[in-house]
Design a protein that fits this description.
The protein is of the alpha+beta class. The protein folds into two domains: 12-120, no CATH class; 130-276, Reverse transcriptase/Diguanylate cyclase domain (Alpha-Beta Plaits, 2-Layer Sandwich), CATH 3.30.70. 62% of the residues lie in helices and 11% in strands. The protein has helices at residues 12-32, 40-54, 56-76, 85-120, 130-147, 161-168, 170-187, 211-231, 252-268; strands at residues 151-159, 193-196, 201-207, 237-244, 274-276. Strands 2-3-1-4-5 form a five-stranded mixed β-sheet, with helices on both faces. The longest helix has 36 residues, at 85-120.
Length: 281
């Protein structure tokens, strides 16, 4: 799973329900109010809401329902003036305008989502950035405090990455970083989170996992990373610092600081290892 997706899109059923409820309210009011009351502004807002939330197809479908409702009112209401060329010209103009609005709103929404994603995504690896990490840490720490749900946080640094960059160039260095990111994603679950927080530093949050299980997961990840690097003859290894929420109950900053310190301890004590605290040591 790409952990950087910025917004939770509403389910199709939920979005349909909201649109239908709003349409029912507007059309009911339109039918029972005298013809001199124009509800078209409300219909326009509904169409724009549909296009923003669901894209062009939702906007066009809503516009079709609105058009059908207006035509039925012209045909069936006693206080209607019926069809005439003024009505047909006006309705055709409205359709053209609304279609343009639908596509404008749809493109604006696409640009908005792209901008939000860009602010939360590492452009090189596609992983989340520090913003994503801190948001998820806040959620997991709240779950830990409320229900005792454990989680593990690991900081990881690539040993020898600078030498690869210096010897082989930044293009190869970028390939190393992308390969590391893809390997991490293959070794974690969809609800875990991987982020790139610095040049060659990564962070992995493993949810609903105690110390010992987290350590086993990171050992498998480290082995997978070594195999991926050896396959490409890239002379790098991985130093990892790991902490469980229960080992640092003071707060998010303490968990982050401890994981970071343990990572640097792994590098100082020989590199290519996992340093951790707690569990069944």
């Amino acid at each position: 799973m790409n952990p950087t997706i910025p917004l939770i899109k509403p389910s199709t059923k939920l979005l349909y329900s909201k649109i239908l409820i709003l349409f029912a309210v507007l059309s009911t009011a339109d039918w029972f109010l005298p013809a001199k009351f124009d509800m078209f502004d409300g219909y326009e807002l509904l169409i724009m809401f549909s296009a923003w939330m669901g894209g062009a197809k939702y906007g066009i479908a809503t516009a079709a329902f609105v058009s059908l409702n207006i035509i039925l009112q012209v045909l069936l209401r006693e206080d209607s003036n019926g069809f005439d060329h003024f009505f047909l010209i006006g309705h055709a103009t409205h359709i053209v305008v609304i279609t343009a609005v639908i596509y404008a709103v749809s493109y604006a929404r696409h640009d908005h989502l792209a901008a939000v994603a860009g602010a939360r995504t590492d452009p090189l690896t596609g992983l989340g950035n520090r913003t994503v990490l801190m948001e998820r840490l806040a959620i997991e720490f709240h779950r830990f405090n409320r229900g005792g749900h454990p989680f593990v946080l690991a900081f990881m640094d690539i040993d020898g990455f600078k030498q690869v960059n210096d010897k082989h160039g930044h293009d190869i260095g970028d390939q190393v970083l992308r390969s590391v990111a893809m390997t991490i994603l293959r070794h974690i679950r969809p609800f875990d989170v991987a982020t790139r927080i610095g040049g060659d530093e990564f962070c992995i949050l493993i949810a609903d996992t105690c110390h010992n299980d987290g350590l086993e997961s990171l050992q498998r990840l480290q082995s997978g990373l070594r195999a991926a690097m050896e396959e490409r003859n890239w002379p790098v290894t991985f130093s990892i610092g790991m902490v469980e929420a229960a080992d640092q109950p003071e707060g998010i900053s303490a968990i982050v600081s401890q994981a970071d310190q343990l990572m640097y301890e792994a590098k100082r004590s020989g590199k290519n290892k996992i340093v951790h605290r707690g569990g069944n040591e």
